Amino acid sequence: MANRWKNTLTDRDVTDESVYLNRRHIIAGAAAGLGLSGIGQSASADDLEPTSWDDITSYCNYYEFGTRKDDPSKYAHMLTTEPWSVKIDGMVDKPGDYAFEDIMSKMTVEERIYRFRCVEAWSMVVPWNGFELADLLELAGVQSEAKYVAFETVNRPEEMPGMRYPVLDWPYVEGLRMDEAMHPLTIMATGIYGKDIPNQNGAPLRLVVPWKYGFKSIKSIVRITLTDTQPPTSWNKAGPREYGFYSNVNPEVDHPRWSQASERVLGTGLFARRQDTLMFNGYAEEVASLYEGMDLTKFY
Ligand SMILES: Nc1nc2c(c(=O)[nH]1)N[C@H]1C(S)=C(S)[C@@H](COP(=O)(O)O)O[C@H]1N2
Ligand SMILES: [Mo]
């Protein structure tokens, strides 16, 4: 897919969901006719049916706007996302404030259709647009002592009505180990279905780590810090026994209060479909080696 300026569409790009879905079917059909298995996606991505735009953008977790699933879509329009910059600091060669436009002019935006699994045991499939986090970190020049990456969400109580409640210790913070951050599956998402990412989904840029529970995918990022110590993370601070630093999707390690063996598939109507949750959310082939030798019940 072509480089994009803030996901501005060209005629080669997807314009709306129906065209998008239709085109996918045509391509899938053509590929099948040719005996091909994929269209540049991994084989397993082929059978992923993207969740509708309406479900993705109206059933959200973004506690800075409230804890109900429809709060973010009601209130996130209050957030000013222009101008926007990301402070990149810590163990980097070129620390500083990076303007969103400058970042976008240097990054290659592509489409990634990923499974998305919330720790609350629901899931969807999102056609993200974004760039690899590794490319952004390389722009800032990662120093060899750096072992972790810390992320911070914008801290703007006047524009985020949910922040008046002490549900979490604001601002929302997250972190990854360096190899997780540099993994090619880890992206900064700036769009969905070829459109700019809506505020409720984390505009203008949010992390997406598809093999981890959704809360690791921190929204509306304003700061990225490279460090040599494991950074604190919001949900781990709120419930250390329930939410670990790693939080890899794992059907064999239950949440203390519910099973993680299966998930409710969003947007499948009244008789919502349930499916088995996959190890590393279906990305084991790509990421299992990152955790070789680690006890995943201890490092949950
Ligand atoms: N800043 C911030 N980021 C956040 C959250 C949040 O409340 N605040 N919720 C997390 C959770 S629990 C999930 S499941 C996903 C939801 O992303 P979505 O609303 O785009 O589906 O965002 C994650 N990132
Ligand atoms: Mo979540």
From TrEMBL:
It catalyses: L-methionyl-[protein] + a quinone + H2O = L-methionyl-(R)-S-oxide-[protein] + a quinol; L-methionyl-[protein] + a quinone + H2O = L-methionyl-(S)-S-oxide-[protein] + a quinol. Residues 80-235 form the Oxidoreductase molybdopterin-binding domain. The lineage of its organism: Bacteria, Pseudomonadati, Pseudomonadota, Alphaproteobacteria, Rhodobacterales. Part of the MsrPQ system that repairs oxidized periplasmic proteins containing methionine sulfoxide residues (Met-O), using respiratory chain electrons. Thus protects these proteins from oxidative-stress damage caused by reactive species of oxygen and chlorine generated by the host defense mechanisms. MsrPQ is essential for the maintenance of envelope integrity under bleach stress, rescuing a wide series of structurally unrelated periplasmic proteins from methionine oxidation. Its EC number is 1.8.5.-. It comes from Roseovarius phycicola. Belongs to the MsrP family. This is Protein-methionine-sulfoxide reductase catalytic subunit MsrP. It holds the Pfam family Oxidored_molyb.
